[in-house]
Amino acid sequence: xxxxxxxxxxxxxxxxxxxxxxxxxxxxSFDDEFDFIxxxxxxxxxxxxxxxxxxxxxxxxxxxxxxxxxxxxxxxVVSTESSIPRLPYPVAGRDPLDxxxxxxxxxxxxxxxxxxxxxxxxxxxxxxxGDFWLNSELIINGEKAGESRQWFGSASLxxxxxxxAFVKMLAPVNEAVGEVEIQISRQAEDQxxxxxxxxxxxxxxx
Length: 206
Prior knowledge:
The protein contains 2 helices and 7 strands. The protein is an alpha+beta fold. It has a 4-stranded antiparallel β-sheet, with no helix packed on it. Strands 1-2-5 form a 3-stranded antiparallel β-sheet, with no helix packed on it.
């Protein structure tokens, strides 16, 4: 009887030991957890070796592309000369505040014209005799249609060349053909205006 009990107990012990060993998790080594790194490096090296031309991978445009194949960066071209034309009005031998230049029609519309008249204020600062208003009256076919004023003082003058005023006015017209006149006068502060000259020009907006 005792032998049977011992045998039964030994069998249970062996069964429990076997079950415990079966349920014990398998622990992988530390190196096995990072095998994917080695595999990634190996795959990258394989792709690098299989490439026939590394430069092709970085070409932004193909040479056969008509629009961008010949595209090149270049330095901007800087012009050394000014593209703005100089004033085309001669001043040698001409007196300031005189009728040195003619009036000109610069724009036309269905019922109006724009007239411009250059006026020489001074050939240099030495010609300037004092502050004044430059008055302009617009006469259309003998009838006054507008006026304007420009102030000139020592700060208004060009220091190394002539000073030219530009009288520019829109003239509404009731006839397709006619005459526009600009009358110029000089007026010092708190004084009466002194007539200087006038210039006329014919217009035709037909």
